């Protein structure tokens, strides 16, 4: 029930979990991460740019990614499935190319450090997290202090109800750094740029066809719902008119004299 009205989030969570399980069972996890020197420079396997976000290669990342997507389902509810799916597709295309490209540029500086891009949709999660940060306000804040002195000057850290969601995503970004951390930073920048209109207008305003997210079915349901409401309103109007007519007849009946009512009763009996 908590994933109600979020079909894109539900499909994404199921895809992350099932894709990772399938890659592990079929022993094909080595096709999804990118080693810059070997895969891109030496063998020109550029198809890995669009494959490394299809699944994760370990269970810890799958768990934290699924929990993060679940926590960010509010964005889909506020935007609608069509806009949310369009944003995910645009962000996935951009984040598929930019992080490996940055690693390619940085690799000569530290070949042992900037040579590995881990698999997973961590950049995409942080693109959604940027929208969550901007759109969803916090409900409350609480402070964690190091001591309980009465002076009130003790060092403390203030958190909000959104802090746990950020903590899950940050932990996911640090699991295979620096590659995962770089992907998270690029994803956040892409999400912020999309929201602030820094990307081309054609990219920001582009939308998937409605039938891909079940919009046609929803429109038909809305039409049937509107027809049902109109019929209920007409029935209510008819019932009100009948009630008014009955009240008028009863009032006319009360206005007749007692003698007229007795004469009418005898006339009906004869």
From TrEMBL:
PANTHER family: RHOMBOID-RELATED PROTEIN (PTHR43066), UBIQUITIN-ASSOCIATED DOMAIN-CONTAINING PROTEIN 2 (PTHR43066:SF21). One of its GO terms (biological process) is retrograde vesicle-mediated transport, Golgi to endoplasmic reticulum. GO terms for molecular function: serine-type endopeptidase activity. It comes from Stachybotrys elegans. InterPro entries: Rhomboid-like_sf, TMEM115/Pdh1/Rbl19. The chain crosses the membrane at residues 12-28, 49-72, 84-106, 113-134, 166-190. GO terms for cellular component: membrane. Its main location: membrane. Residues 234-248 have a biased composition (Polar residues). It is found in: Membrane. Pfam families: DUF1751 (PF08551). This is Peptidase S54 rhomboid domain-containing protein. Residues 232-252 are annotated as: Disordered.
């Amino acid at each position: 029930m908590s994933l109600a009205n979020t079909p894109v989030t539900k499909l994404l969570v199921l895809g992350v979990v099932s894709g990772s399980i399938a890659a592990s069972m079929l022993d094909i996890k080595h096709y999804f991460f990118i080693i810059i020197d070997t895969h891109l420079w030496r063998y020109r396997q550029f198809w890995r740019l669009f494959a490394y976000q299809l699944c994760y290669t370990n269970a810890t990342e799958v768990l934290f990614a699924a929990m993060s997507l679940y926590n960010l389902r509010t964005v889909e509810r506020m935007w609608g499935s069509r806009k949310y799916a369009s944003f995910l597709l645009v962000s996935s295309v951009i984040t598929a190319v930019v992080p490996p490209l940055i690693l390619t540029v940085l690799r000569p500086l530290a070949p042992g450090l900037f040579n590995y891009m881990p698999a997973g949709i961590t950049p995409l999660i942080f693109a959604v997290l940027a929208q969550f940060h901007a759109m969803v306000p916090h409900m409350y804040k609480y402070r964690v202090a190091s001591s309980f002195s009465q002076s009130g000057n003790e060092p403390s850290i203030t958190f909000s109800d959104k802090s746990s969601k950020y903590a899950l995503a940050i932990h996911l970004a640090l699991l295979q750094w620096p590659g995962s951390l770089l992907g998270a930073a690029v994803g956040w920048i892409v999400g912020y740029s999309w929201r602030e209109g820094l990307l081309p207008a054609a990219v920001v305003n582009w939308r998937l066809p409605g039938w891909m997210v079940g919009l046609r079915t929803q429109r038909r349901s809305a039409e049937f719902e509107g027809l049902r409401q109109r019929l209920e309103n007409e029935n209510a109007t008819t019932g009100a008119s009948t009630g008014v007519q009955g009240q008028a007849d009863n009032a006319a009946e009360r206005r007749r004299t007692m003698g007229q009512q007795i004469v009418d009763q005898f006339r009906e009996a004869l």
